[in-house]
C-alpha cells in the first residue's frame, strides 16, 4: 500500500479510517512523509511575507497537518488496543520523532512572532469569542512549550522532551508486558472457589493458550483486583494481591523503578527551565485548580475523614472475619458485609452480575440515558470494518434525525491491549474541517467463552457509563476549530462529564430497563435493586483512601525539585502516604508508581487529583439533576448547551457556572463519600 493511500482522507462513513488500507503499513515511512508535509505547511505559514492575520496564521495552523493526524489517530490507537511486536518497535522509533517535530514547531521564532503579533493586537482584530480564545490559547501553548526561551534553554527542553518520549513509551511497554507475565497460575479449580463458571472457564482457556497447566487468572490494571472480592480461599487471594502489587518491581527487563525516577527528574528539570519550582506547579498552572498547593490541600482535607471511615470499616470487617484484615482480605469481607446489608442473611440469592449483561448495559442503559437526556438515537453498523473484530460500531443521530457521528465500543481485554479504560477519537468534530466525530470507548472486561454472555460487576457497569460520558463530550461537540473539540479541556475538568454520567447507572427507570437477568429476563429482586439505588456510604472509606493515596503519590513524584535522587521507590511512596495521613493498614493506593500508567505514560502527570476535583462538580450537578426531575430533555439540553457542546472554546469554570448558575458546592461530595 502506498504512503499516499495511507495519508489520504477516508471515503468511509464519517471518515472512519479504512483499516484495510493500514494493514501491513510501514508506519515509520508513513509518519516520515506526514512530518515532511506538515513541516512544509508550517514553514509556509511562518515565512508568509504578508502581515499576520487570523486567517493566514491561526486558522491556517488549524488546517495544517491533517494527513499526519490521520495516520497518528490510527497508529496510537492500535498501539494501545492491539499492540504487536512490529507496532511496538515502530512506536519506539516514532514517539521521539513526534516529540521533536512538535518541539520544532513550538520553538519556531518566526512562527511565534506572527502569533505574538496577533496576540498583542487581539482586541482590535474583530474576532468572535471562539477566535479570540483560540489566539490566546495558541499564544499560551507556544509560551509554555518554550517559544520565548533562549537558544540554550530551548535546546535542553527539546532534548528532555525527546528523552521523555522514549522513556514513557518504554514504561508503557514494560507495564503491559509485566501485567501479561504476572497472570496468576492455579493448579486446581478448588483454588478458584467463589468465581463464576465463566471466569473459571476463561482462566482455563488462558492457561491452555499459554501452554500451561491448570488455570491462569489474568490481572487487571489497578492494584486491587476484582477477583479478590470473590475468591473464598485466602491463600488464593494473597497470591493474586501479591502478583498485582509487586508488578514492575521484581528486577529484570520489566522493572520500572529507575525508569520512573528518571522521568520524574527530567520533568522537574524542564519545569525549572520554565521558571517553576517543580513539574506539578508547571502542569497545574494551566488547570482549573491553578496551583499544586490547591490540589494537594484538597487531598489533605479529605484524607483525615476518609482514613477515619476506613478504620471504622476495618473494625466491622474484622468482626465478620474473626481475624485481622489484610489488604487481600478487605475486598472479600467488604462484599460479604454488603450482601448482609442487602439481604440480612449473607450471600444467598443470585449475584448482581447476573443482571448486568454487557449488551443490555450499553444499549438499554447508556444509550437510553443519552436518548432521554440529549435526544440521541443509535443504530448499529455491522457493515463497517473496525480496528479489531471484537469492536462494535453505532451510528449516532441527533434529535432531528440527522447523522451526528459514530461511536465504537471495544470492551474486552486481550494480551495486546493495555490495561484500564479510556475514550479516544479517530476523528474530532470541527465545523472548520466539516468533520463529524468518530469516538471510541475502550475497556478491559473479561471475554466470556463462546456462546456465553459477558456479565459485569457493579463497578464495571459504572465504568461503561463513565467512559460513555467522555464519549458524549466528543459526540456532542459543536465547535468551529479542532483545537477546542470535545474533551480538549483542562485535565481537572475533563472528568466532570464522565463522572456525572455515572449517576444514570443507578437512576431507577434506567436501571430497570437494563438490569434484567441474562437468562430469564426477570428484573432485579427487591433487595438487590435497593442496594443499587440506596448504596449509602458503606465502603467509601476504603475507596476514598485508595484513590487519595494514588493522587498523593502522583503529586509526590511531581513536586520533587530538580536534582532530587530517589533511590528507594517504595520508601519514597510510603513516606508520601504517611505524610498525608493515608498510610492505612489494609488499604493500599489504587496504583503504585512502578505501574502507574496514568502519570508515567498516560497524560495525567500531576493530574490524578483531577478525578476528585471534578467529582465536586459531578456531585453538585447530580444533586441539581435529582432535584430537577433527572434525565429529561430540558435538563440534558441545559448541560449540552453550556458544557458538552463547547469543548475548550470557553473557560471551563465559566462553562460550569453557565450550566449551574453558580460555583459548585462541595457539600454533595462530602455527603456522597460520607466525609461530612
- Number of H- or I-type helical stretches: 27
Q: Helical percent range?
A: 40-55%
CATH class of the largest domain: Mainly Alpha
Strand order of the largest sheet: 3-4-5-7-6
- Calculate the mean pLDDT score and round it: 95
Largest sheet: 5 strands, mixed
List unreliable stretches of 5+ residues: 342-348
How many extended strands? Answer: 7
Task: Predict the CATH topology of the largest domain.
Answer: Neurolysin, domain 3
Sheet/helix structural class: mainly alpha
Beta content comes to 5-15%
Distance between the termini: 61 Å
Cα-atom radius of gyration? 25 Å
Described by the principal axes of the CA atoms, the overall outline is globular
Structural overview:
- This protein has 4 domains: 3-148, Glutathione S-transferase Yfyf (Class Pi), Chain A, domain 2; 182-245, no CATH class; 257-349 and 538-608, Neurolysin, domain 3, CATH 1.10.1370; 350-524 and 609-676, Neurolysin, domain 3.
- Residues 342-348 have low confidence and may be disordered.
- The radius of gyration is 25 Å and the shape is globular.
- It is built from 27 helices and 7 strands.
- Helix content is 55%, strand content 6%.
- Helix 3 (27-46) packs parallel to helix 6 and helix 25 (633-644) runs antiparallel to helix 26 (652-660).
- The strands form 2 sheets. It has a 5-stranded mixed sheet, with helices on both faces. A two-stranded antiparallel ribbon has the order 1-2.
- By secondary structure, the protein is mainly α.
- A hairpin with a 5-residue loop joins strand 4 (392-397) and strand 5.
Amino acid at each position: 500500500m502506498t504512503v499516499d493511500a495511507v495519508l489520504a482522507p477516508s471515503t468511509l462513513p464519517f471518515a472512519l479510517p479504512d483499516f484495510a488500507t493500514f494493514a501491513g503499513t510501514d508506519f515509520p515511512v508513513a509518519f516520515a512523509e506526514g512530518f515532511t508535509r506538515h513541516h512544509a505547511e508550517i514553514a509556509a505559514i511562518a515565512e508568509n511575507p504578508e502581515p499576520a492575520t487570523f486567517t493566514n496564521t491561526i486558522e491556517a495552523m488549524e488546517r495544517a497537518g491533517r494527513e499526519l493526524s490521520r495516520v497518528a489517530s490510527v497508529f496510537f490507537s492500535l498501539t494501545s488496543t492491539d499492540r504487536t511486536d512490529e507496532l511496538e518497535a515502530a512506536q519506539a522509533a516514532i514517539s521521539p520523532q513526534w516529540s521533536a517535530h512538535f518541539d520544532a514547531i513550538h520553538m519556531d521564532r518566526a512562527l511565534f512572532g506572527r502569533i505574538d503579533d496577533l496576540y498583542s493586537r487581539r482586541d482590535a482584530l474583530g474576532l468572535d469569542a471562539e477566535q479570540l480564545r483560540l489566539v490566546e490559547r495558541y499564544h499560551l501553548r507556544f509560551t509554555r512549550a518554550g517559544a520565548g526561551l533562549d537558544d540554550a534553554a530551548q535546546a535542553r527542553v527539546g532534548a528532555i522532551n525527546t528523552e521523555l518520549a522514549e522513556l514513557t513509551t518504554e514504561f508503557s511497554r514494560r507495564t503491559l508486558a509485566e501485567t501479561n507475565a504476572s497472570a496468576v497460575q492455579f493448579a486446581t479449580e478448588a483454588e478458584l472457589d467463589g468465581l463464576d463458571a465463566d471466569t473459571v472457564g476463561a482462566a482455563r482457556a488462558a492457561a491452555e493458550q499459554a501452554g500451561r497447566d491448570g488455570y491462569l487468572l489474568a490481572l487487571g490494571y489497578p492494584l486491587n483486583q476484582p477477583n479478590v472480592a470473590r475468591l473464598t480461599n485466602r491463600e488464593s487471594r494473597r497470591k493474586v494481591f501479591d502478583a498485582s502489587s509487586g508488578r514492575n518491581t521484581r528486577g529484570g527487563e520489566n522493572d520500572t523503578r529507575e525508569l520512573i525516577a528518571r522521568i520524574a527528574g527530567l520533568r522537574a528539570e524542564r519545569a525549572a527551565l520554565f521558571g517553576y519550582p517543580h513539574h506539578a506547579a508547571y502542569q497545574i498552572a494551566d488547570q482549573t485548580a491553578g496551583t499544586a498547593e490547591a490540589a494537594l490541600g484538597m487531598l489533605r482535607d479529605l484524607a483525615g475523614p476518609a482514613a477515619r471511615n476506613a478504620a471504622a470499616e476495618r473494625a466491622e470487617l474484622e468482626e465478620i472475619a474473626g481475624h485481622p484484615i489484610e489488604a487481600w482480605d478487605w475486598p472479600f469481607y467488604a462484599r460479604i458485609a454488603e450482601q448482609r446489608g442487602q439481604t440480612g442473611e449473607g450471600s444467598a440469592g443470585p449475584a448482581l452480575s447476573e443482571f448486568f449483561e454487557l449488551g443490555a448495559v450499553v444499549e438499554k442503559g447508556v444509550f437510553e440515558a443519552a436518548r432521554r437526556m440529549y435526544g440521541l438515537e443509535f443504530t448499529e453498523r455491522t457493515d463497517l470494518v473496525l480496528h479489531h473484530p471484537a469492536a462494535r460500531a453505532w451510528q449516532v443521530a441527533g434529535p432531528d434525525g440527522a447523522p451526528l457521528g459514530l461511536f465504537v465500543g471495544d470492551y474486552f481485554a486481550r494480551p495486546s491491549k493495555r490495561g484500564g479504560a479510556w475514550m479516544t477519537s479517530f476523528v474530532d468534530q470541527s465545523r472548520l474541517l466539516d468533520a463529524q466525530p468518530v469516538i471510541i470507548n475502550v475497556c478491559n472486561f473479561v471475554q466470556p467463552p463462546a456462546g456465553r454472555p459477558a456479565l459485569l460487576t457493579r463497578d464495571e457497569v459504572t465504568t461503561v457509563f463513565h467512559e460513555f460520558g467522555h464519549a458524549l463530550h466528543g459526540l456532542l461537540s459543536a465547535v468551529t476549530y479542532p483545537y477546542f473539540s470535545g474533551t480538549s479541556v483542562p485535565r481537572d475538568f475533563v472528568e466532570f462529564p464522565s463522572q456525572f454520567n455515572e449517576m444514570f447507572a443507578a437512576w431507577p427507570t434506567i436501571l430497570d430497563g437494563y438490569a434484567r437477568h441474562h437468562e430469564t429476563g426477570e428484573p432485579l429482586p427487591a433487595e438487590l435493586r435497593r442496594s443499587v439505588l440506596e448504596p449509602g456510604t458503606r465502603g467509601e472509606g476504603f475507596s476514598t483512601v485508595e484513590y487519595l493515596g494514588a493522587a498523593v503519590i502522583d503529586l509526590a513524584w511531581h513536586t520533587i525539585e530538580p536534582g532530587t535522587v530517589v533511590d528507594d521507590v517504595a520508601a519514597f511512596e510510603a513516606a508520601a502516604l504517611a505524610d498525608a495521613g493515608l498510610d492505612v493498614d489494609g488499604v493500599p493506593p489504587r496504583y503504585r508508581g512502578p505501574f502507574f500508567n496514568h502519570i508515567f505514560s498516560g497524560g495525567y502527570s500531576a493530574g490524578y487529583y483531577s478525578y476528585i476535583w471534578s467529582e465536586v462538580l459531578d456531585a453538585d450537578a447530580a444533586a441539581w439533576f435529582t432535584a430537577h426531575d433527572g434525565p429529561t430533555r430540558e435538563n440534558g439540553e441545559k448541560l449540552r448547551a453550556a458544557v458538552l457542546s463547547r469543548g475548550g472554546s470557553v473557560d471551563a469554570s465559566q462553562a460550569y457556572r453557565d450550566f449551574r448558575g453558580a460555583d459548585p458546592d462541595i457539600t454533595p461530595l462530602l455527603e456522597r463519600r460520607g466525609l461530612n
